[in-house]
Amino acid sequence: MDKTYYYKEVFMNEDFTGDHLDNIEFEDCRFDNCNFAGMSLIQTVFDNCVFNHCNCSLAACMKTAFRDVTFNGCKLTGMQLENAHTIGLQVRFNNCLLNQVNAYKVNLKATTFTDCEMVEADFSDAVLEQAKFINCNLNQTVFNNTNLQKADFSTAHNFVINPTTNKLRQAIFDKSNLEGLLVSFNIIFK
């Protein structure tokens, strides 16, 4: 990339995998069908940006800032969020593939996940207070010592959450998906 600051630009069908996006700021930008797969994003700033149908699989986010960022229909498999910049972190995920995402110790308070597949994601020690998991598949996703207070799981499915190792005060569940809270107690359902 030629500049260190991009404002209100639209990037379409770009393959960034050969570029270095270190220490670059994108403000009010849109990325459509772009490829960031396997990239190391070091101290990159995305401020009020939208990603539509992008491939961010296996991207490592080293001190990368995501401030008011929306991901629509993106593939984020294996994305490493645990080293992202935490100040001002605000993201939304709509119809995204978040399998094997590592969000260990990440503060994702009030984040909304809508129609996402999140198989084998790791939210250990994360803050997901007031998060919404709207119609999300959470199969084999790890919640361990996670703050899930006031989180909404009412339409989520395939989750296993141990109430003794997570903070669940005022979390919302539907009566039909309570089995995921009781699996750790080795209760048999018929």
Task: Kindly describe this structure.
The structure is a single chain. The chain is mostly beta strands and 190 residues long. The protein is built from 1 helix and 13 strands; from the N terminus they run βββββββββββββα.
Question: How is this fold's topology laid out?
Answer:
Elements: E1 5-7, E2 10-12, E3 25-27, E4 30-32, E5 40-42, E6 45-47, E7 50-52, E8 60-62, E9 65-67, E10 69-72, E11 91-94, E12 112-114, E13 132-134, H1 179-182
Parallel strand pairs: 1-3, 2-4, 3-6, 4-7, 5-8, 6-9, 7-10, 10-11, 11-12, 12-13
InterPro entries: 5peptide_repeat (IPR001646), PA_immunity-related (IPR052949)
Protein name: Pentapeptide repeat-containing protein
Pfam family, one: Pentapeptide
Task: From the structure above, extract its key features.
single chain; 190 residues; 7-stranded parallel sheet; 1 helix; 22% strand
Distance between the termini: 59 Å
Shape: elongated
Strand content range = 15-25%
Order of helices and strands: EEEEEEEEEEEEEH
Radius of gyration: 17 Å
InterPro entries: 5peptide_repeat, PA_immunity-related
Organism: Polluticaenibacter yanchengensis
Protein name: Pentapeptide repeat-containing protein
Short description:
By secondary structure, the chain is mostly beta strands.
